[in-house]
Amino acid sequence: MYISEIKIENFRAFGSGERAFVLPLNPGLTALVGENDAGKTAVIDALRYVLGTRDQEMVRVDVTDFHQPPGEERSNQIVIRLTFRGLTAADRGAFAEFLTYEDVGGQLSTALILTWVAKRSSKENTSRRVAPPEWRTGANGDGPLLDFGARSLLTATYLRPLRDAERAMSAGRGSRLSQILQHTKEIKDTGVPFKAETLAGLDPKTLSVLGLGDYASFLFGESEGITATRTKLNESYLAPLSFANDPLQARIGVSGHADDAIRLRQLLEKLEVALAPMADPESAHTRGLGSNNLLFMACELLLLAAESDGFPLLLIEEPEAHLHPQRQLRLMSFLQAQADKPRPDGQSIQIIVTTHSPNLASELPLSHLALIEGGRAFPLSEGKTKLSKSDYRFLERFLDVTKANLFFARAVLIVEGDAENILMPVIAKLLGRDFSEFGVSVVNVGGVGLGRYARVFMREDPVTDGEIGIPVACMTDMDVMPDNAPWIVGILKEGEDVPKRPPSRRQWRVKADFPEGGLEQRRKERTEKASGQRVQTFVADEWTLEFDLAYSGLLPQIWGASVLALDDDKIQEGKTTAIEVIKAAVPELKALREQKLDAATMAAHLYAKFEHEGASKAISAQYLAQRLEASFKDDPTGLRKRLPPYVLKAIAHVTVPFEDLPEDEAADAVEEAV
């Protein structure tokens, strides 16, 4: 049995009707991802309210749990509905009178639908501001009330975000460790009871835990010190206080309860579990918070995996707590394996985690992730997104930890290379659109699969599911050069003609390859590959980022950056200086300017630094970022007039729009740069 759907209405950030929170779930492991305050913890708390938890922690509904829309009155009723499917024969027997029968594809299927309702008290003069909740069954919540005995079969195991693993695993009355061990098969069923008459041939290792307790009590009773003390107490102190026909006799022994279950619990409360180095397995308290957290989770899973009854649900908030990245990856792989492993009763553990860790998010297939945003759930499984089967396979291979930060952002900028990754945050900050202030994550896909990453945020059925409210901008090159560029950048030698074979068979294109509106058609096709809903693709206005920056008005800055990149090794080794490199490059740029070349030709000569001379775009971007900060730190308008329009549009899409600038000012900037 597993939870196949969670529906929450009027609980904290979740509204009702079209704004209700609905999360379909599959068996196994599900990770809830999203930025802070999206509602991930609210989902976990909703499950805790309905199901209860095995640590027997009491959770009470507060008035602040009732949803309050902006500018409106607080809601009067919270409704949480859980749908359980995949019921085993044992489940159907345990919940027989509470089941709902459904027609699924012409076949009769059983489900347990549990509706939890909490209402604000209508009485003004009362200390109880929230009426006791009800647990109702049936498809419409009009079935019989779920009694306490049935509810106890649905309790979940819950691990809080800031958990004290060491304390939970320590000895003490009511310790979590004793609760876990008491229900494990190995503790309950292994070993034999102790009998005094078999003492002669007794092997203590064959005794059960209770048998060991009884054996220890027997040995205490036979101890010379205790025997002598008992004799002295009886003969010297109690005998003088006794009547002739009513002697007072003391017995000294280990305290114990007649009930075996209680005695077992009392024995287990004396145990603790701790990690120790391999070299000294008897040593304790030598591991840190992270390792103790792993121990705690391992013990909880030991119980869940070994049980033959009860609902196998594990809720973990922030499993990455106190763990370094490699441990996080190991943990997620382990949790996935545990969720796939059947228990003795044939069921598998369902695990729901919340996480802020790109490490964990990158380790799981997309089908196991659900993005929580704006009070709504957006499962990323097949059929829910615009991703194709091929996209899912691609992303499982290439969606690594550096790209997984897109699941935790308020806005996402997807770029194709290192230069954009370096420059865009700097440019945005200089323009007063600091990405860190707007919660923008820049995701560098390395020139491969830009549209695939973008389609993660596009819903297959936005009318039903709603749109993900995270603005996503994709920046891509036009990859069409001016007609004279092949000779300037060294693709063709002087005197060579453009090959007559079809352009589709060349790795490069010139504008002449796209007659009669072909360029606009190419731009449209590139834009539409990854645009829709809140996702928008911005195609370079001319060719590539470096070319367009030079073309639009930043030629001197990027020219200097490119020559610095060419001599970067010498600069770093101290063989030359940045000033000397720039001075040496001035004559070349001056000679080109004296030829009165148009902006496109000048930008092509700049791009030859990358295409022909081999300047690193990434290193150039580092130098250009420094030069832009030096030149435009206090002049955002001056920088804006020199930037390509598509760059400005992409920044505006993930932050806020810019005010219009007069067209003549932008034209003046281009003329000035040339």
Task: Please provide a written account of the structure.
By secondary structure, the protein is of the alpha/beta class. It is 40% helix and 13% strand. The chain has 27 helices and 16 strands. Strands 1, 2, 4, 5, 6 and 7 form a 6-stranded antiparallel β-sheet that branches. Strands 8-9-10-3-11-12 form a 6-stranded mixed β-sheet, sandwiched between helices. A 4-stranded parallel β-sheet has the order 14-13-15-16. It is elongated and about 130 Å long. The relative contact order is 0.08. The model has no long low-confidence stretch (mean pLDDT 87).
Throw out a few tags for this protein:
about 675 residues; alpha/beta; six-stranded antiparallel beta sheet; six-stranded mixed beta sheet
Instruction: Tell how many strands the DSSP assignment holds.
Output: 16
SS-based structural class? alpha/beta
Helix fraction bin = 25-40%
Alpha carbon gyration radius: 35 Å
CA distance, first residue to last residue: 70 Å
Low-confidence stretches: none
Question: Average pLDDT across residues?
Answer: 87
Q: Quick one: overall form?
A: elongated
Q: Provide a count of the helices.
A: 27
What share of residues are in beta strands? 5-15%
Q: Biggest sheet, in brief?
A: 6 strands, antiparallel
